[in-house]
Amino acid sequence: MTLTEIVDIQKIRADFPVLDQEINGKKLVYFDNAATTQKPIAVINALKHYYEFDNANIHRGIHTLAERATRDFEATREAVRKFLGAASTEEIIFTSGTTNGINLVASTYGRKFIKEGDEIIISGLEHHSNIVPWQMLCEEKGITLKVIPVNDRGELDIEVYDQLLSEKVKLVSVNHVSNALGTINPVKEIIAKAHAVGAVVMIDGAQATSHLDIDVQDLDADFYAFSAHKLYGPTGVGALYGKKALLEAMPPYMGGGEMIKEVTFEKTTYNELPYKFEAGTPNIADVVALKAALEYMDSIGRDKIAAHEDMLLQYATEQLLQIEGLRMIGEAKNKVSVASFVIEGIHPQDIGVLLDNLGVAVRTGHHCTQPLMKRFNILGTTRASFAVYNTIEEVDRLIAGLHRVKKMLA
Ligand SMILES: Cc1ncc(COP(=O)(O)O)c(C=O)c1O
Predict the structure, then answer these.
(1) Which residue in 178, 254, 204 sits closest to 99, CA to CA?
(2) pLDDT in tens, 306-349
(3) Atom of ligand 1 lying closest to residue 100 CA
(4) What region, left, alpha or beta, does residue 401 occupy, with left being phi > 0 and alpha being psi -120 to 50 degrees?
(5) Beta-carbon neighbour count of residue 344 at 10 Å?
(6) DSSP 266-318
(7) Would the pTM of this model clear 0.90, i.e. be above it?
(8) Tell me, what's the pLDDT at 3?
(9) Smallest CA separation from ligand 1 atom 7, residue
(10) Taking residues 195-206, what's their average pLDDT?
């Protein structure tokens, strides 16, 4: 299987102006895609077009610019509904990203429906943004936090999950895909089991949406959050899906303009869904550009993107394992294009600095998953994560760079 059989790689690379530059005298290799992806010209142009021609505040204006801005903002809501497989746009709330979506659910659903003596389950694979909001809630309300352990391959131990489940559990929150290891979690099974004891389930989709097809109805997820910047869209915007009945039962998150129906000093009534959860002027331009990102992915084909990334992961894994002293962290049977590893005797940060000198951008450290690093008894890893614009030649540059690092430091 060659690269060109899966995607037209040269055409795709030409869509990403940022890739066409040298870092420290070498052509940039960008392998920090799990942190944030680069943006295609279609997304950059959508932002530019919005500010050049359509900028206005949405929903309340009757002039032409306000109508255009509102139309494009709401068109993204419909695009996100379709992208997630949700039943209605009322179930799509724009947020500033995954972190914001999880905090919204913890602060509203959590505060209202989870009480002292109840339990919340998360997993050992979570990003800090799917740990800390639940810990804060648990501290405030006297709730117990339980954690699904991770096996040596970096997969969740579902047998222990089965044992943790009981009628005391009111909410389960896990990621669909681990950012640190790339593990794809069996979320459909996790959700069904939680529902069987009456718990609702929040899925952190930050790392899944750029690699997998998402269907929240098929998964039967109660809440699903993602960030646009991980899927070729702008930073500072994302969406939270929530089942309509749950969203309707939840109190608002922030108070302010837009989320109200009527305000008097005695009492305020709240707007209908989804606006009840969208107080204040939203990030209109970035919401508009998110639609361009979704269309960009569709124009390539999401299955082709996934196949290309899988090919890069397989090739990179084979090559990495040939480096003496290198240990992969995360060898799940089902994983996305994340290669996390440690090299005996070399600090990940030194690897990162030396690779950057060679023009290769990787992420090093704990990846906002300190408990997971502790589980593997390491301070951090070096993580190369691949996107649609990456190539086999770039993987070769990483491997050559690591051989050089070893020669210098081991
Ligand atoms: C699994 C996971 N969850 C949550 C987040 C937080 O996303 P954001 O910073 O866009 O809110 C990230 C970001 O790296 C992530 O990888």
Answers:
(1) 204
(2) 999 999 999 999 999 999 999 999 999 999 999 999 999 999 99
(3) 11
(4) alpha
(5) 10
(6) S-EEEPPTTGGG--SS--HHHHHHHHHHHHHHHHH-HHHHHHHHHHHHHHHHH
(7) yes
(8) 59
(9) 98
(10) 98
DSSP, collapsed to helix, strand or coil, labels residue 245 as helix
| DSSP designation for 346 | B
Query: Residue 144 C-alpha to ligand 1 middle, in angstroms?
Result: 24
Give the 3-state secondary structure of 31-42.
Answer: CECCCCCCCCHH
Pocket of ligand 1 (CB under 6 A): 97-99, 127, 129-130, 175, 179, 204, 206-207, 227
Residues of the chain with pLDDT > 70: what percent? 99
DSSP character for 183?
Answer: B
Q: Which two tokens stand for residue 198?
A: 């009456």
Cis ω for the linkage preceding 186 (within 30 of 0): no
What's the pLDDT at 4?
58
| Cα–Cα distance, 142 to 292 (Å, whole number) | 44
The number of angstroms, rounded, from the C-alpha of 270 to the middle of its chain's C-alpha atoms is: 30
Contacts of 107 (CB under 8 A, 6+ apart): 133, 137, 253
> For residues 116 and 236, what is the distance between their CA atoms, to the nearest angstrom?
34
Task: List the beta bridge partners of residue 263.
Answer: 268
